[in-house]
Amino acid sequence: MFVHDLRPLDILNYLIKYADDTLLCPQISQTTAELEMIHVICWANENKMAVNLLKTVELVFHRSNVSHDLSPLAMSNVSRVDSAKLLGVHLKHDLNFSQHVESSVAICNQRLYLLAQLKKQGLGMSTMDYIFNAIVLNKILYALPVYFGYLTEGQKQMLQRVLYRANRR
């Protein structure tokens, strides 16, 4: 409710607001990303809030084979990155989700080890199933419909192997 009155300068731009994160998605419009960013900072100041520019990054989505000469000018006071973590999902400039899949698989493998230790200590199967659903399956399924179409067959197999290992145990 607090950010309900925050609107973009141009109707062709999007401001996606979630908790304390704002995703600025300018398209072809009359305003630049920098002007929209200044607008967000002014709005925050008027509402007695501050934008933490140390945690603010700019991620420009583009194909890997596109020259950097065609990219928009970088915003001042905001670092431009090739990848960022937004709402728990690692995004890369080319919509390659390898970093996210590798991170998720590593975390799930650690959690499967924890489940194996709990099993050795005599935890019941129904309780193990609840814990598996909460800490492993939910990690894999989180935001999966959003990025599944961008995964390679190898990345899909990495996620499938985690489930296979879990089923074996």
How would you characterize this protein structure?
There is one protein chain. The chain folds into two domains: 68 residues, no CATH class; 71 residues, no CATH class. Helix 2 packs antiparallel against helix 3 and helix 2 runs parallel beside helix 5. By secondary structure, the chain is an alpha+beta fold. The longest helix is centred in the middle third of the chain and has 23 residues. It is elongated and about 60 Å long. Strand 5 and strand 6 form a beta hairpin. Helix content is 44%, strand content 14%. Strands 1-2 form a two-stranded antiparallel sheet. It has a two-stranded parallel sheet with strand order 3-4.
Structural class: alpha+beta
Q: How do the helices and strands follow one another from N- to C-terminus?
A: EEHEEEEHHHH
How many β-strand stretches?
Answer: 6
Note poorly predicted spans: none
Cα radius of gyration in angstroms = 21 Å
Cα end-to-end separation: 46 Å
Instruction: Choose one word for the global shape.
Output: elongated
Helix content: 40-55%
Tally of distinct domains: 2
Strand content: 5-15%
Sheet of most strands: 2 strands, antiparallel
The overall average pLDDT, rounded, is: 85
How are the strands of the largest sheet arranged?
1-2
How many helices? The count is 5
Secondary structure layout:
Layout: E1 14-18, E2 21-25, H1 33-46, E3 57-59, E4 79-81, E5 83-86, E6 89-92, H2 98-120, H3 125-141, H4 144-147, H5 153-168
Parallel strand pairs: 3-4
Antiparallel strand pairs: 1-2, 5-6
